[in-house]
Write a structure and sequence with these properties.
This protein is of the alpha/beta class. It is 32% helix and 17% strand. The chain has a six-stranded mixed β-sheet, sandwiched between helices. Helix 3 crosses helix 10. It is globular.
Length: 332
């Protein structure tokens, strides 16, 4: 991802049309819901993050990108999921043709009723927000901004049988999310932000199955930030307020209310935008919205410091257990 536009006008005005009184109902049902019969293992997710980062920055077209993609596909297959891929060539903001590889792992692939969980797996080619300008043209290691979301999905997939999930779940690892123009090429970047999220934009136009339908979607982006707080992102509330309400309630049941705050966040240019606007799948973005951390996405965002050592197991556990709770409460 990566732009966050803050529109901190009064919540009653900003979200009146989208959420219809959400603030008074966000926790309804949370106290009476049964806890999910599975525990998210943060250590397992951390091991996956380290494994992904060990390949090197997963810049599209690189050997590290190829090898990590193979690892992700094999990891989902080892959990008993059906894995397919979308491979294509797309054009970036500068007219360069880039290889695209979206990886889709499906639980109960023949079920008509489905939900969608997604994250991006590529690395940004430029650490252009690093405090040291000497690092700006180096690739981002992408432990948090990429690997963390994939790791949470892999660990969640391990528990689907224990949760009794009897509906279809598609885990999609989107490619080419993080190749938007660096600041030194802003003059040739499209003003509407379409230089970002190329993998999800491609999938939203041409899903892996014709006439694909999902009840709802959840996007996981940068879900390993230390001391993270996740707020109600604007596009999520515009298109998927009811899904956000259920997810935030699930966070309460999962014991993660300190991470999922019932407060307004900014509008993020992220993979959920084409899912909502093009594919028509009501999708919520779980993305940090912080202050005083160097950036609203946390101190390692688009820097060379985005390494496994900066990942918080507590944040991974909070997000992962909330996701398990949401899946557990869903009915087939």
């Amino acid at each position: 991802m990566k732009r966050l536009l803050f529109l901190f006008i009064p919540a009653a005005i900003a979200f009146m049309g989208a959420c219809g009184g959400y603030r008074t109902t966000a926790g309804e049902g949370a106290d009476s819901a049964a806890a999910a019969p599975a525990q998210f293992e943060a250590d397992s997710a951390m091991a996956s993050i380290r494994r992904q980062c060990a390949f090197g920055p997963r810049v599209p077209g690189s050997e590290a990108h190829r090898r990590c993609g193979d690892y992700i596909a094999a990891a989902f297959r080892s959990l008993g999921l059906d894995v397919s891929e979308q491979r294509a060539e797309v054009v970036d903001y500068a007219g360069r043709r880039l290889p695209l590889r979206n990886i889709i792992a499906s639980w109960r692939p023949d079920e008509a009723e489905r939900v969608l969980i997604c994250a991006h797996w590529d690395s940004r080619p430029w650490a252009d927000a690093d405090p040291d300008s000497a690092n700006h043209r180096k690739p981002v290691p992408a432990a948090n901004d990429g690997a963390s979301g994939v790791a949470v999905m892999l660990e969640a997939a391990r528990h689907l049988a224990a949760l009794g999930v009897d509906f279809g779940v598609d885990f999609i690892c989107f490619d080419l999310e993080d190749g938007g123009a660096p600041y030194w090429e802003d003059d040739i970047a499209p003003a509407d932000g379409t230089d970002w999220c190329l993998g999800s934009r491609y999938w939203a136009r041409t899903p892996h199955r014709a006439d694909y339908v999902a009840r709802w979607g959840i996007l996981l982006d940068m879900v390993g930030t230390e001391r993270a707080t996740f707020r109600l992102e604007g596009f999520s509330m515009r298109y998927a307020a009811s899904v956000a309400g259920r997810l935030w309630a699930a966070a309460r049941t999962a014991g993660a209310a300190d991470f999922f705050l019932n407060e307004d966040g900014g509008y993020a240019t992220d993979d959920h935008v084409p899912l909502n606007e093009t594919a028509g799948i009501p999708t919520v973005d779980v993305i940090p919205c912080m202050s005083g951390a160097g950036s609203n996405f946390g101190p390692t965002w688009h820097t060379v410091a985005d390494t496994p050592e900066k990942i918080s197991p507590a944040t991974l556990r909070a997000v992962g257990q909330t996701l398990l709770q949401m899946l557990f409460e869903e009915k087939g």
